[in-house]
Amino acid sequence: MKNSEPYLLGIDIGGTGTKAGVFTLDGTLVGSGYGEYTMISTLPGQAEHDAEAWWQATIEAVRHAIADIAAEDIQAIGVGCTNGLIAVDQEGRPIRPAIMLWDQRALPEVDRISMQLGADEVFDITGNPLAPGAFSLPTILWLMHNEPESYKAAHKLMVPGGYLVSRLTGTFTIDHSRASTTLLFDIRKRHWHHPFLEVLGIDEDKLPLPVACDEVVGRITGAAAELTGLKEGTPVVGGCMDTIGASLGTGVLKEGQCFVIMGTAARVAGPITSGQFDQRFMNCTHVDADSWQYIGAINGVGSALRWVRDTFCELEQKEADATNADVYELITNQAVDSPPGSKGLLFLPYLAGERTPIWDPYARGVFFGLTLGHKRGDFFRSVLEGAAFAIRHVVELLESDNGIVISELRIGGAAASSRVWNQIISDVLGKRVVSLTESHTEVLGAALLAGVGLKLYPDYHQAVAQTVVTGAVFEPDERAHRSYNKLFPMYKELYIDTKHHFQQIVEMDLPQGWITRGSKE
Question: What pTM was estimated for this model as a whole?
Answer without folding.
Answer: 0.86
